[in-house]
Specification:
alpha+beta; 3-methyladenine DNA Glycosylase, Chain A; nine-stranded antiparallel beta sheet; 9 strands; globular; DNA-binding
DNA sequence: AATATGATCTTCT
DNA sequence: GAAGATCATATTT
């Protein structure tokens, strides 16, 4: 309970690639959150979506720069947290070389440690599957709010850390919940993993990793 | 100043 | 499968 594996945050270099390369590369990595009271929450990333630069009509980088989002054109490896539908936060990591405005949305994690605290954060969740199986749920479980917008995810209280490599089949599908570029295959997930959201969504390709 | 629009979740049918 | 909750940001008057 008081021993955690050695955590090695991913380097900024890791994020300085195209979003559609970083997104699948993040599968299997650890999302690590240290709360103010010292409790550590951890989950294995099992589902991500890539949002590219200005050539992607669904990306926030095609919109005019706002104070809350201007850092997505800055150096990669920082959190981009924003409120969706007035009620739920979504967590992104800024990726791609500086100036592009690419992001990767973290859609689902497999909860590993701190489940009791996650259940307190998500009283609505009746099963462990409902804890983190969606971008809004994940933010509730991990207590991620706009206060963590612009946080450095290579160091601090919200980081993505290296993990033991595990074998899995890569699922690819169109992104969820958007109205532009709806067919672009930029959602990546661990095929068959029970903590992925929208398990019945048809995938377009599948290959071993 | 006012309105339209979501990278969602929950509950109900 | 569909509707409602709810608000930061962007776009329109």
């Amino acid at each position: 309970m008081n021993r955690f594996p050695k955590l090695t945050p991913l380097s900024r270099h890791f994020f300085a690639r195209r979003a559609d390369l970083v997104a699948p590369a993040l599968l299997g990595k650890l999302l690590v959150r240290r709360l103010d009271n010292g409790v550590v929450l951890m989950g294995r990333i099992v589902e991500t979506e890539a949002y590219l630069g200005p050539e992607d009509p669904a990306s926030h980088s095609i919109r005019r720069r706002s104070a809350a989002a201007q850092h997505i054109w800055g150096p990669p490896g920082f959190a981009y947290v924003y409120l969706c539908m007035g009620m739920y936060y979504c967590l992104n990591v800024v990726v791609e070389p500086e100036g592009r405005g690419g992001c990767v949305l973290l859609r689902a994690v497999e909860p590993l440690t701190g489940l009791e605290t996650m259940r307190l954060h998500r009283p609505r969740a009746r099963t462990d599957y409902e804890l983190c199986s969606g971008p809004g749920k994940l933010c509730q479980a991990f207590a991620i709010t706009a206060k963590l917008n612009k946080a450095d995810m290579t160091a601090g209280d919200l980081v993505i850390a290296e993990a033991e490599k595990i074998q899995f089949a890569l699922g690819v599908s169109p992104r969820i919940g958007i109205s532009k570029a709806v067919d672009w295959p930029l959602r990546f997930y661990m095929a068959g993993n029970p903590y992925v959201s929208h398990p019945n969504k048809p995938q377009v390709t599948k290959r071993a990793v």
